[in-house]
What we know:
Elements: H1 8-15, H2 19-26, H3 34-46, H4 53-59, E1 65-71, H5 83-98, E2 102-108, H6 115-122, E3 128-131, H7 137-144, E4 150-153, E5 163-167, H8 169-182, E6 187-191, H9 197-213, E7 218-222, H10 228-241, E8 248-251, H11 254-266, E9 276-278, H12 284-288, E10 295-297, H13 300-315, E11 323-325, E12 328-330
Parallel strand pairs: 1-2, 1-3, 3-4, 4-5, 5-11, 6-7, 6-8, 8-9
Antiparallel strand pairs: 10-12
Helix pairs in contact: 1-2, 1-3, 2-3, 5-13, 8-9, 10-11
GO molecular function: DNA-binding transcription factor activity; transcription cis-regulatory region binding
Keywords: DNA-binding, Transcription, Transcription regulation
InterPro entries: HTH_LacI, LacI/GalR-like_sensor, Lambda_DNA-bd_dom_sf, Peripla_BP_I
Amino acid sequence: MSEKIRTIYDLAKLAGVSGATVSRALAGSSVVSAKTAERIRELAKEHGFRPSSLARNLRIQRKGAIGVVIPLGHDQGQHISDPFFMTLIGALADELTEKGFDLMLSRVIPDHDDWLENMIDSARVDGFIIIGQSNQSEILDKAARHYLPMVAWGAFVPGQTHCAIGSDNYLGGSLAASHLIERGCKRLAFLGNPQAIEIALRLDGARAAVARAGEDITLLESPTHLAAEASGVDIDAFLDATSIMPDGILAASDLIAVTAIQVLASRGMSVPDDVRVMGYDDLLLAQTSVPTLSTIRQDIRQGARHLVESLLARINGQTTGSIVLNPELIVRGSST
């Protein structure tokens, strides 16, 4: 029976070389001659030896983990269980696992300006993926000036320092408003909290579409929480307070849109007969809601792929630029 090889030192003894030589050979270092490296690899294969990821990470001074951080500066009631977060986190986990990295997830309530610097200084991970810029763009910019391995899901605006990957939120807002106007809506309402840069851009796009449409189209704006229960309270209060009942609703997320449909139903109003509704994201719930939800699709899986690829390039010392993905109008039952 062949001798069991458990460590690089067992393999080194069998090959008659040092442990350092085995480590370099398995890492593909050119310091070791091709003949010796090939013999070591053959011995490793013969004895079924694979160096542990921990040993490899120690050798290249990496932790083997990526920090995925959700900062909630503008809407602290959101939870990690939010459907958008879960969808993007799932896609990121798939991408990172395939690349050999673990995922360390954190939900942060930014109660001081050095929250991100403290996370960087802790040196527990090889880099950070920030999910959503919230109202923390300046904090991200400050860190990006000296810390390379960090990317964010969200908007890009001129002058921004940190690397962001996300959809064109301005275009998405414009597409949503234009669609409702084309379907005959004249009294639009935007539901979302524009303290977050992505939502602010969606609102700006909707405003531009309304301005292009002419004076007979109005746009009401209602700051609305992203969490389902809180958004329901906000939507009820908005409908109670407004003297102009909207015939078209643009929601800043699919979850807000579905909640709006439920609130309208509780008031005896029908979607789309009385009010047409648009969401944003195209999550699974948009396809399963009743009626099915018209929305603006963000390609979340493609975004996750770009986030991971950009971050890995930055971990290796390369500078990467921001990426803006095109949103897509998806028309379903809630606006037909």
